[in-house]
Write a structure and sequence with these properties.
heterodimer, A: alpha/beta, 4-stranded antiparallel β-sheet, globular, B: mainly alpha, binds adenosine-5'-diphosphate, binds magnesium ion
Amino acid sequence: MDENKTVPMIQAKDLTVGYGDVVVLENLNFSIERGEVFVIIGGSGCGKSTILKHLIGLYEPMKGDILIKGESIVKADWEEKRRLMKSFGVLYQAGALFSALTIAENIALPMEEYTKYSEKEIMQHVNEKLKLVGLQGAGPKMPSELSGGMKKRAALARAMALDPEILFFDEPSTSLDPVTAAMLDRLILDLRDRLGTTMVIVTHDLDSIYAISDRVIMLDKEAKTIVARGKPSELRKSNPPPAVKEFLERAGLSRKMD
Amino acid sequence: MSISLFMSENKDKVGENGASGKFELHEPQIRPAVEYVGETSIHLWKDSINILAIIGEIAEAVWYAMKNPRKVRWRETLYYMDVCGADALPISCMICFLMGLILGFQASLQMHKFGTDLYVADLVGLSVVKELGPMMVAMICAGRAGSAFAAEISTMKVSEEIDAMVTMGFQPSRFLIIPKLLALVMVMPVLTIFGNVVGIIGGMTVGVYSLGIPIITYFNRTALIVTPRFFTEGLIKSAVFAVLIAAVGCLRGFEAKNDTHGVGAAATSAVVSGIFLVIIADTLMTYLFSRF
Ligand SMILES: Nc1ncnc2c1ncn2[C@@H]1O[C@H](COP(=O)(O)OP(=O)(O)O)[C@@H](O)[C@H]1O
Ligand SMILES: [Mg+2]
């Protein structure tokens, strides 16, 4: 137990990621603690999605290592990876619902694969998750029948299907209306408080950075690395590099306009 | 394993694009030509390796499916059987009938000169059963099923559905390829049987109406010449074609570039490679069958 507490949930060591010979980000070092809401920000194209996909074990890094609860997901074989991935829930940028299945079937799929629930229990859980994201009754619909924001919420329900230990979000509030985005923020905090879920969030939404994040790292396309890190409030107070300052001050701007 | 295979493919592509960006307009023409040949050969070589790799992976997935038949997604298999089989039946029959008709007509012109009208039945029967039936069905399926598989998988790649599948612990090869492959392997020989019968009827039409051969005579001659062995050869070919078309369709889908452009390119490439592979395999098998 004690050991579990000291080992970070996720740890990136000298991580260099990219495609082919093209390096996108290099020599990243950071760790994410259990129960933390960890936010990754940065301009578009700076490699946020790339780093997220490496953390969940989809891509192999060019250099360095990623440890999930102390176990390397880089060196893991398929069976080990599968075991690690079972504790992940991922909300992809575009939702990534399986378009051939209904919403309910989408959410039921991981439960069918990993749990011994009966069909009735699965239906019960599916409805519960749908209610959590405010999509009661959307179960029998096909993904193509939902709006962008509804798809995203359905995808969130699927990501939560197995009550994962770590939830990854790729730009969760993009294509959500402000009310739903705020609901999502509350949901994230509630899950963290209730289940101790660790959250790794890639976002542009400055309001939600201030509202929910425990710690932020900011990536930069030119520097190809982490240009700022810390609590969001501290980031602004300490003397940040101009790019960071600009990014964070736009937050103030959008709030004044509210 | 599967993931890393598809990934390395992507990386190669990025590397190549990066390298080709170096060309200067003022370079002598000969350099780019040589480089073009070189790059194309490298590309062909990598492509062959990828096709072998995916066939290996498919073999593994098929082996897994045989050990765990309950894990095969039968509902989807049935769906693909419907789409690739039942829906392709009218067009397959139509084309095979016309091929039989054309073949019969061409043959009748030549055979009539020598007064060996009845040999039209031999020529049409054997050509259709050994070559044209399996081949025409393969062409149609490469155009319909192969491109559809590639488009479907590459769309799933663009919309991150494949990523989602992997993080949910499903191996895309098992989940996506097996139902398509099984469906096509079960359905194409059946289509071929229909195609064969209809093709022979096409030849018979010409024989009866143009050459005046009695139906029963034509029928008996065909039944005598087209032995079960030849018929089986055609069906074996058809099953092999099915594996190739499904495999290359899925491969092209998985290695597609991550954008909408990639989807179209993948579908086109699936058809072209599918037809190419089918013809290569046909050559090999025709040679092999003639030896035994
Ligand atoms: N599959 C890919 N192959 C090659 N390059 C890619 C691929 N995906 C993304 N990139 C490149 O990597 C960089 C980072 O992309 P991404 O991680 O998607 O950025 P974002 O921060 O907007 O999520 C971009 O320059 C993009 O062009
Ligand atoms: Mg992104």
